[in-house]
Amino acid sequence: MTPLSRGIFFLFLFLLPLQTVWILREVSLDGSKWEYGTIGIFGTDVVLLLFMVTFLGERIFSWKRNNPRSFSFSFLFRGVIAKGALLDARTRIVFGSLVALLVWSALSILWAEDTVLARYFFVKMLFAAGVFFVARSLRYQFASYGALILFAGAVLESMLGLWQFLLQDTIRSTIFGMSHFEVWRPGVSVLKNESGRWLRAYGSLPHPNILGGISCLDAHFGLFF
C-alpha cells in the first residue's frame, strides 16, 4: 500500500462517524419513515470508493510491472488463490465464511421483494468486506496509526455527546449529517425519571447506542495507550 492509498484509508477512518448523506430514496411505512428502506450515498462511501479504486489500481500496476509478459486478470486471480492457499486453517475458515456470506447475499437479490434495496445493501457488504481485508493486511505500525485515528475520532464523538447532554440540545448540520433532536418530540431517544425527560446524547451518529459503543471503544483504547 502506497502512502497515497494509505492516507485515503486513514481519512476514511477519521470521517467514519460522520453521517453526511445524499438521500436517493425514502420509504414510509404507516406514515413514518422506514430507516432500513432508505437508500443514500454517504460521504464516507465516496472516500472509501476512492480508496478502493486507488488501492486496486496500485496493486494491478505493481503486478503488471513485475510480470510484464504474463499479466492478465486470470493470472491475477490465480495469484490470489495461490496466496490464499498459504494461509493457516483458521484464517481460511474466516475468509471462506466471509466469501460464502457475500455469495449468499448476492444470490438473495434474485428473490428479494425490493431488488434495488437488496443490491444497495449488497454493495454495502462489499465495502465492509473490503475494509476488513485491507485492515487485516496493514503492517503493525500502520495498524497502530489506524487505531490512533479511531481513538481520536472516538474522543471527539465523546466530547460532542457530553456537550449535547449538558445542554440538552443538538445542532442541525447538513454538512456533518447531524439532525436536531428535541426532548419533547416523540421518537427521540430520552431517559425518563421523576425530574422529567432527559435527551440522550447522539453525537453525530443516528442513535445514542452507537455513540455508547464508540465511547466504550474510546475507553478501551485509553486503557491500552
Q: What is the gist of this entry?
A:
This protein is mainly α.
The assigned structural class equals mainly alpha
CA-CA gap between termini: 26 Å
**Share of helix, binned:** 55-70%
Query: Could you give the order of the helices and strands?
Result: HEEEEHHHHHEEH
Radius of gyration: 21 Å
| Binned strand content | 5-15%
- The count of DSSP E runs of length 2 or more, i.e. the number of strands, is 6
Mean pLDDT: 79
Shape: globular
Low-confidence segments, given as residue ranges, are none
Q: Number of helical runs?
A: 7
Largest sheet descriptor: 2 strands, antiparallel
Strand order of the largest sheet: 1-4
Name a few traits of the molecule.
225 residues, two-stranded antiparallel ribbon, two-stranded antiparallel sheet, 7 helices, globular
Walk me through the topology.
Layout: H1 3-15, E1 21-25, E2 28-29, E3 32-33, E4 39-42, H2 43-66, H3 73-85, H4 89-108, H5 115-137, H6 140-167, E5 190-193, E6 196-199, H7 208-224
Helix pairs in contact: 1-2, 1-6, 4-5, 6-7
Can you offer a commentary on this structure?
The longest helix is centred in the last third of the chain and has 28 residues, at 140-167. The radius of gyration is 21 Å and the shape is globular. It has a domain at 141-225. With 225 residues, the protein is mainly α. The mean pLDDT is 79. A hairpin with a 2-residue loop joins β5 (190-193) and β6. The protein is built from seven helices and six strands, in the order αββββαααααββα. The two termini are 26 Å apart. The strands form three sheets. It has a two-stranded antiparallel ribbon. The chain has helices at 3-15, 43-66, 73-85, 89-108, 115-137, 140-167, 208-224, and strands spanning 21-25, 28-29, 32-33, 39-42, 190-193, 196-199.
